[in-house]
Amino acid sequence: MSVIVLAEHENGVFKKKVFEAVQYAAGIAQQQGTTATAVVLGEAPADALAQLGVSGATKVLHVADARLNTLSAKAYTKALAAAAEKEGAKVIVALHDVTGKAVAPRLAAKLKAGLVAGAISNPDTSNGFTIKKAVFSGKAFSYINITSDVKVITLMPNTFPVKKGDGSAAVEALDVAFDDKDFGVKVKEVNKVTGEVPLAEAELVVSGGRGMKGPENWGPLEELAHELGAGLACSRPVADSHWRPHHEHVGQTGGTIRPNLYIAVGISGAIQHLAGVNGSKTIVVINKDPEAPFFKAADYGVVGDAAEVLPRLIDAVKKFKASQN
Fold this sequence. Notes:
Elements: E1 3-6, H1 16-31, E2 36-41, H2 46-50, E3 57-63, H3 73-87, E4 91-95, H4 98-111, E5 114-119, E6 130-135, E7 140-145, E8 151-155, E9 170-173, E10 204-208, H5 219-228, E11 231-234, H6 236-240, E12 261-265, H7 271-277, E13 282-287, E14 300-303, H8 306-323
Parallel strand pairs: 1-2, 1-4, 2-3, 3-9, 4-8, 5-8, 10-11, 10-12, 12-13, 13-14
Antiparallel strand pairs: 6-7
């Protein structure tokens, strides 16, 4: 009876958030006196799969059907259900991302399991099986006790720091009998952002709002992000005005991020924006309006014009980096 975790990959490459999910599942397994088994769907080399052991997986079940190289929610659900049956799993973990949001509810319905979507804590088993998640756009927390025999959890990425060990997982093939109906919905095209720090993976994020006054003023933000090795984000009005691409939009109707540091420049701090970033570990707000609501949510605030503050901040970062060499 192991804990199952869906390990997403791109051509056998696992992102940081996947190791976080495996680590989370391994922690639950340890809590329950069992082991964690990662499930990998689609084609991938065996040596790449074994590396999931560094995050605590003792075994990898590999469904190497090429049709699973792209997301098919129905087929993914079938494969995970087969893996859960094989392992006798009572807890199944996935990430709270596009794949997890598509697959976890279907899996929960199929297995008659309770579901917590967007978990931000380890289960508290002192009186049941209770998990914490953010609700009301991050303004409150809910503690949900899953009482069903089988439990499905999606973990919010960047909730826990990833700590890798030196373990190696045993890889085992899993045969699942798919039919054409399992692939009735197909992904025809995938457009990926390249050459930047992905927001979902970024530990540092620099973000701009309408206070930047126009796309022509984004240079200092880009330079600051480059110097920090940070992801670049923006508020919804900025994306709607086509100052920046929509994949950089964070907030209630955009992406949800939980970086270690979020630097917001020229963003007022509307509740819709906070909904996507208030899971950040540390928030720094730069705004010339001292009454900007964002200051109430900030850990540190700078009242000043971005055109004056950013160059000085960039110089300070450069001097700090030079002093470390």
